Amino acid sequence: MASDEEIRYAWNDLPRELKNIPVQNINPELIARMCIAISSGLFDGAINYIWNAAILRLREKVRNFGLPIVSQILEKDFEDSHLISLQDSQLLDLCLQLNILNEEGSLFLGQCRNIRNNFSAAHPSLGNLNDREFITFLNRCIKYALGDSSSPKGVNINGFIQSLKGDRFNDAQRELWTNRLSETHEVQKQLLIIMAHGVYCDSNSQEPTRLNALDICELFKNSFSASLRSALIDKHAEYITKGDESRQTASSQFFEKLGLLGLLSAPQQHTIFSTAIQRLQIAHDGLNNFYNEPPYAERLLELSQNTAVPDTVQSDFVDTIVSCYLGNGYGVSWAAIPSYEKIIKSFSPQEIAMMLRHTQTKNSRISRIIASKRKRFIQALSLIDPASVPNGVKAAYEQFINHEI
User: Fold this and answer.
1) pTM above the 0.85 mark?
2) Among 21, 26, 46, 23, which Cα is nearest to 34's?
3) Does domain 266-401 have CATH number 1.10.8?
4) What is the DSSP letter of 149?
5) Using CA atoms, how far apart are residues 398 and 405, in angstroms rounded to an integer?
């Protein structure tokens, strides 16, 4: 039995530890027995009671997560009888796998399990614990099992996929899945988002399915962790490596729709911008360009707002946007003008310099039409904040603005 001094120190520290247990997590019977054991100096019995309380709490968390979902993850039957029959070490491993415990919690509770097995009344003891060792044991049981009021709920993976592949989400469905993913642990949420990305990229997916997948990812994109972003990039790279052009294209659209184009490599960003620029130029040069330009102009606007224009296509980007804004011999596509104006207003200093230098570049579209479109070009320049004009082209800018050319 512990000495009177050890009992006194343990008893004095006890309230500080117990107040960290949320009321709903308190097991009155086991906590009362622990307190009686401490007051009697039976620390070996006290650690057994608090350990049992911690194990019961971890089992409760697994039940709250959802036994059918645990069964899906383990790919085998898992009912309450299986949970109860798990050894303590197996329960800790399962909680780590379900992310109910993190690496730190699993490590320290694993140490507590060894202490309980070797220094408690549950088994023949190898020795005695003093008050400091007992309080440390108590602190870890509370911190990693009893003191955590959160209890993540698992998401039925099959149900999630089936729901994505059903009809277009209504507001109630969208809210339901948002809540379910918010309540689950981070690892499973990341897994489900990666699955949604895969569903979006599947060529067999119908448009409502793709939009449902995009809805889910859109709702959580601002909280994407570094590991999730890395996993999504890895999946995109996998499509490229396998030469799966259909999924690669869909994956690029996925990143674009979520405003995450910046995560893709420079060559991939170049391809996306270059294709959009070429399509706008073809629409501008083709028949019915006044009607065909707007959607291509809007796409370039979205892309440029999503991420910075790659250096490799900046020149073509500036040349195409400004020349389309200037128009051709028949006029301009007025429905596309708002998109062009927004893009020009957001030109970087480097793009502004290109815009002005293209007036003197033989192969640029701007230089070929500037003579007949000077007033329109000055209107384009007026959209730019003078403070953004680089010093190297400041003189040319002022000459245009002052009508001296």
Assistant:
1) no
2) 46
3) no
4) -
5) 10
User: According to the model, what pLDDT value does residue 325 have?
Assistant: 94
| Dist CA 193 CA 185 (whole Å) | 13
Task: Select from 342, 348, 356 the least CA-distant residue to 400.
Answer: 356
| Closest CA relative to residue 37, chosen from 14, 68, 67, 71 | 14
Q: Nearest 5°: phi and psi at 328?
A: -120, -165
Residue type present at position 48: N
Asked if 299 contacts 337 with a C-beta cutoff of 8 angstroms, the reply is no
- Is there a contact between 110 and 89 (Cβ–Cβ < 8 Å)? yes
Count CB-CB contacts under 10 A for residue 330: 8
Return the SS3 of 87: coil
d(CA 346, CA 330): 27
Q: Which helix (H) or strand (E) holds 231?
A: helix 226-242
Bridge partners (DSSP) of residue 331 are 328
For 40-79, where are the alpha helices, taking DSSP H only?
43-65, 67-74
* 321/330 Cα distance (integer angstroms): 17
In angstroms, the Cα distances linking 231 to 190, 209, 228, 234 are 9, 21, 5, 5
**Cα–Cα distance, 25 to 103 (Å, whole number):** 22
Residues of the chain where predicted confidence (pLDDT) is lower than 70:
149-151, 404-405
Long-range contacts: 68-73, Cβ < 8 Å, 24+? 68/156, 69/154, 69/155, 69/156, 69/157, 70/94, 70/98, 70/154, 72/156, 72/157, 72/158, 73/97, 73/98, 73/154
**For residue 294, how far is the Cα from the chain centroid?**
32
What's the pLDDT score for residue 405? 46
Terminal Cα-to-Cα distance of the chain (whole angstroms): 100
- Amino acid identity, position 191: L
The two three-digit tokens of residue 10, written as one number? 């343990």
| Dist. CA 254–CA 261, nearest whole Å | 9
Contact at 8 Å (CB) between 153 and 181? no
Here the tokens at position 79 are 């009912």
